[in-house]
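dumping this here so i dont lose it again. seq + smiles for LH2PNOKW
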Amino acid sequence: MNSIVRAAVLGNRGLWFPALNAVKTMSTSGGPTPPFTTLSVTQPANHITHVELHRPEKRNAMNKAYWREMVECFNQIAEDSECRVVVFSGAGKLFTAGIDLMDIAGDLLQPQGDDTARVAWYIRGIISKYQNTFSVIEKCPKPVVVAVHGACVGAGVDLITACDIRLCTQDAWFQVKEVDIGLAADVGTLQRLPKVIGSRSLVNELALTARKMHSDEAKSCGLVSRVFPDKESMITGALEIAGEIASRSPVAVQGTKINLLYSRDHSVTEGLDYMVTWNMSMLQTQDLMKSAQAALEKKSPKDVTFSKL
Ligand SMILES: CCC/C=C/C=C/C(=O)SCCNC(=O)CCNC(=O)[C@H](O)C(C)(C)COP(=O)(O)OP(=O)(O)OC[C@H]1O[C@@H](n2cnc3c(N)ncnc32)[C@H](O)[C@@H]1OP(=O)(O)O
């Protein structure tokens, strides 16, 4: 049992939770993993953590607890030296219906504060907190493979654009829904989606009209890299990709994620400079020698044992 699963099982109480099958399979998670109430966290295979949105009866709508729990969960994953890759999916009928529209009424429509400045400051805090909920995915050095089935609405699009690899099912659709509820998307879609799909015209069309984009178009525009016939085959596919990543040197994998993200936001020259500085130290890893030796011997990276990172 890795430390994220252990932390989730033990919570802050330091108690064993005997009823919980701590290590469950990908598709059979029974419910949220304590102390989380909106997330199920399991370890389906060595070095792989599966995080599942788990409010299926509310279509995985993102309530107040969710915004907090995601940050706790990904901060733990970032620190968990047993975890090398994350698979993220949704329980039930669909991936997510986006922000919980019942909660929004309390938080944003009745903001606290004695005057305009204080109300604005209060709202600023909420939006920043919500932004951080998805930025933690990007800040986490472990790659995140997201698997979308059914619908991915509103904040769901913010979430998936912060992930590293996106997969979906044939029946999946995506919707930048925010204009329909009277707000400009403010927790990542407008910043990340243009970097994910090449056509700014298409981004503008999706964000300004809130039209649904179905899986075939999502594949053709590059939002997802693979489309699977159904959820079961997608989860199997996600696990296979995660298994490939988990078998590689964690020094190489995490350095790749961090440098790809850096280069996305900088010039080629700046990216190359950052890379040089990065690998000045990281090339001194024993993983390089081990991996090169395995390649020379025509072995798979899966045959190499790497130290924890
Ligand atoms: C600072 C703010 C930053 C964040 C901004 C984020 C913005 C957004 O996310 S905008 C998008 C908001 N979401 C929506 O507008 C989607 C609303 N839901 C739907 O359209 C449908 O539920 C959906 C098409 C996703 C699924 O339809 P289906 O027929 O499968 O389910 P329903 O019968 O409609 O719903 C089942 C129960 O789930 C509850 N529910 C669904 N979505 C939400 C939601 N977004 N918030 C809260 N609750 C939701 C729905 O009320 C049903 O509950 P119950 O009646 O108790 O069974």
